[in-house]
Design goal:
Helix content: 25-40%
Number of strands: 19
Number of domains: 3
Distance between the termini: 51 Å
Low-confidence stretches: none
Number of helices: 15
CATH topology of the largest domain: Rossmann fold
Radius of gyration: 25 Å
CATH superfamily of the largest domain: Vaccinia Virus protein VP39
Strand content: 25-35%
C-alpha cells in the first residue's frame, strides 16, 4: 500500500477532484512528486466509482482504494447489507476477502470476522480502511485462505466465499470447479470448520449447473439491484438433504420485492389469451426460473409456456412491471401498418422469432416514448403484438 496517498494534501486533492475528467487531469503536471501521478489518478477514478455504489467509503476520510476494476467488481453496499441478513452467530471467516465490503456488513452482525486475502497489498488496504471506518472486529490475514483456515484452532458459525474465475477460463461455460478457490473440491475441508457456508457467484452461473456441483444446498437467493441481477447467493448447511428454497429478490430505492418457491414442488401454470392487464416478472424471478410458480402463487394465466408473460382482468400487486393492454393484434403486415409505423415505442420480445433491432428497422419504430410494445406468442402459438401503457 502506498502510505503517501493518505497524506492530508493528497487526500484533499482527491476529494476536490471527484467530479473531474480523469483523462484530462492526467495531462496536467503531477503536483505531488515523487508520489506517482498514476497512483493518485487511480484513487480519483476508484472514488468516482464508489460514490453511488459505496457511499459509506466515499464519505469517509482517508479511504484507500484498490484499482478501479476492483471497485467495479466488488459487492455494492446494498447487496452486502442484504447478505448480512442471511447470517447470524459470533464468528465468520471470509475465504476471499477482496475489498471487504461484505465483511464490513458481516461485522455488524458477528463478534469477529476474519478477512483472508491472497493479495498482501489489498489485505493491507482493507486493514487500513477498517481503522478509517472505525471497525474493530475485522481481522485481516494475508495469504492462501485454505492454509489460513487450517491454522485456525476454532470453528466458525459461518464461512463466506466469493470464488473468482481463473484467467484461463475465458469463453468457457461458467463452472465452480474452474474458480479460485475450488469450492466443490474443498467442501469437505470447509465443513470441518463450519456448519454453514454462504457462497456468492456471478449470475452467469446456471442454477442447475451449480446444484449439480454442490452438495448440502439449502437455499439460493437470486439478488437483483434495480432489476439488474447482480449475484447468486448459495446457502449450504452441513449434511442437509432436503428441498432447495429459491428466493428471488429485487432491491430498489422504494422497496425490496421477494418471491420464493421450493424447487422440489411441481407447479402447474394456467394459460389464457391476453386480458386487461399484462405482467412482466422482474429480472430476479426470470433468473430463478420459477415461471410456473408465478402463475400458481398469483393465480394468473401465462400467455404461453415459453413467453413468461402473465395476464389478468384484475390488477394485482406484482413483483415486476405491470401494464394495461390497450390493443392486441396478430403480427401481420396489414395490422402492423395500422399499429406502429413511424412512431415511438419501447419494444420487448418474449418467445418471438425476431429481435428488437430487426423489429425496429423493419417497422421504423423509434426508441422511447410512453408506449410499450410486446412482441410475443400466445397459447395458440399465434405471433401477436400487445400495445400497452405502463402502470
Amino acid at each position: 500500500m502506498n502510505h503517501a496517498l493518505v497524506s492530508a494534501e493528497i487526500q484533499d486533492f482527491i476529494r476536490q477532484n471527484t467530479k473531474a475528467d480523469v483523462p484530462k487531469l492526467a495531462l496536467q503536471k503531477n503536483p505531488f512528486a515523487p508520489v506517482e501521478w498514476h497512483a493518485i489518478l487511480e484513487q480519483i477514478s476508484a472514488k468516482q466509482k464508489a460514490e453511488t455504489k459505496l457511499p459509506t467509503w466515499f464519505q469517509t476520510k482517508n479511504i484507500i482504494y484498490p484499482s478501479k476494476i476492483s471497485v467495479e467488481q466488488t459487492s455494492s453496499e446494498k447487496t452486502a447489507a442484504y447478505k448480512a441478513t442471511l447470517i447470524s452467530g459470533n464468528r465468520l471467516i471470509d475465504m476471499s476477502g477482496g475489498f471487504g465490503i461484505d465483511d464490513y456488513y458481516f461485522a455488524k452482525k458477528m463478534s469477529e470476522v476474519i478477512h483472508c486475502e491472497i493479495n498482501s497489498e489489498l489485505s493491507e488496504i482493507v486493514a487500513h480502511n477498517c481503522k478509517a471506518l472505525n471497525v474493530t472486529n475485522i481481522r485481516c490475514i494475508a495469504g492462501d485462505s485454505t492454509e489460513i483456515l487450517k491454522r485456525q484452532k476454532v470453528s466458525f458459525d459461518w464461512m463466506y466465499i466469493d470464488p473468482s474465475r481463473r484467467n484461463d477460463t475465458k469463453g468457457k461455460v461458467f463452472m465452480l470447479r474452474d474458480c479460485l478457490p475450488n469450492v466443490p473440491e474443498n467442501l469437505d475441508l470447509y465443513f470441518d470448520y463450519t456448519r454453514s457456508v454462504l457462497i456468492k457467484t456471478a449470475p452467469l452461473l446456471d442454477i442447475t449447473a451449480g446444484l449439480a456441483e454442490l452438495k448440502y444446498v439449502k437455499a439460493i437467493h437470486v439478488v437483483a439491484l434495480d432489476n439488474d441481477v447482480k449475484e447468486l447467493l448459495w446457502i449450504l448447511e452441513k449434511n442437509y438433504h432436503g428441498s432447495v428454497k429459491i428466493i428471488a429478490v429485487n432491491i430498489t430505492k422504494e422497496a425490496t420485492d421477494s418471491f420464493s418457491f421450493d424447487n422440489s414442488t411441481t407447479a402447474s401454470a394456467t394459460f389464457d389469451l391476453p386480458k386487461q392487464y399484462l405482467y412482466e416478472p422482474n429480472a430476479a424471478i426470470m433468473k430463478s426460473g420459477g415461471f410456473d410458480e408465478v402463475s400458481t402463487q398469483f393465480n394468473i394465466a401465462k400467455l404461453h409456456p415459453h413467453s413468461h408473460l402473465y395476464t389478468s382482468n384484475t390488477l394485482l400487486k406484482f413483483p415486476g412491471r405491470c401494464f394495461v393492454i390497450e390493443k392486441c393484434v396478430d403480427y401481420t403486415k396489414n395490422e402492423m401498418k395500422h399499429l406502429l409505423t413511424q412512431t415511438k415505442a419501447n419494444v420487448t420480445v418474449r418467445n418471438f422469432p425476431e429481435t428488437v433491432d430487426t423489429i425496429r428497422k423493419k417497422w421504423k419504430i423509434k426508441e422511447g416514448g410512453d408506449r410499450y410494445c410486446f412482441f410475443t406468442t400466445d397459447k395458440n402459438n399465434r405471433k401477436i403484438v400487445l400495445l400497452c401503457t405502463k402502470l
